[in-house]
Amino acid sequence: MAELKREDSFGWLIAVLSRQLSDEFDQRLQALGLRIGLWPTLFALWEEDGVTQSVLTEKCQTAHYTTTRVLDELEKRGLVERRPHPTNRRATTVFLTKEGKALEHPAVAEAKACNARMLAGLSRQENDRLMTMLRKIAGLGSR
Amino acid sequence: MAELKREDSFGWLIAVLSRQLSDEFDQRLQALGLRIGLWPTLFALWEEDGVTQSVLTEKCQTAHYTTTRVLDELEKRGLVERRPHPTNRRATTVFLTKEGKALEHPAVAEAKACNARMLAGLSRQENDRLMTMLRKIAGLGSR
DNA sequence: TATTGTTATACTCTATAACTATA
DNA sequence: TATAGTTATAGAGTATAACAATA
Fold first, then answer.
1. Distance, angstroms, CA A138 to C1' C14?
2. Shortest CA to C1' contact from A72: nucleotide
3. pLDDT value of residue B11
4. Which one of A81, A105, B111, B128 is most buried, counting C-beta atoms within 10 A?
5. Tell me: the pLDDT tens digits for B80-134?
6. Which residue does chain B place closest to A138, by CA atoms?
7. Is residue A107 classed exposed, middle or buried when 0-12, 13-18 and 19+ CB atoms within 10 A define those classes?
């Protein structure tokens, strides 16, 4: 008999849910010609574009070389443009193209659908309580 | 302005927490000479050893080739033994060695410490409610 | 023909580090 | 010397598929 039960481990539950969510979301994004690896960067740009790559790196909580490669792919697909920074010649600023901007609505709709499906079994009150606690744990204040 | 806020997305919160947890847990396991990739298989064996690889594959929700490689590594480290199945000559049964069994207590202690640190900001009642909701979402009944 | 397990291959993510160019 | 970004390389996870042995 094990010393710990799976279902009693927060980490185990989070790992299971994370896997379920990323699988489902990745599949949904395929319908838009995207993949989940492109999502954090696109999302950050929908929040605010015209920022430098180092800003994107920080917002995505990823590594600078990952940002480089994701932007290469996004640029190749015509979703973003790299433009020289007006004053700092080392820096590059990143802008969404019209095509990149147009993807926000359908992509966010898929994200919302994904969340809704996962949380379908909870009441509105449970849903709110859950989100509040998760934000607290993730270190985002109670809001 | 974005159509969706990060902190309002269940999926985004789960992804952040999953990353935090796996980073912390992996670091804790290093102190025991383990890594996180070995954990699901070891955990399944602590629950019950002497099972076949296909059973482990199912319990770990992974792929059969992953089980093969993880067991290769565990065997090389002297934590498990593969033995022929008594009646089915295709199948292999997997047993923990004394060393593999001895790791359960310290490894589970790290898992519990990891969970406790993540949930430190919640009251006992919040903790219980959170776990109940997560189990529900993950499809594990309300327990 | 289906099952059990191994191997080959490839793609993504992650991590370290070396590199260019600018500040 | 530090910053911004690119590139090379390697380890780990994941996926498909081919394969051998057995049922």
1. 22
2. D6
3. 95
4. B111
5. 999 999 999 999 999 999 999 999 999 999 999 999 999 999 999 999 999 999 9
6. B17
7. buried
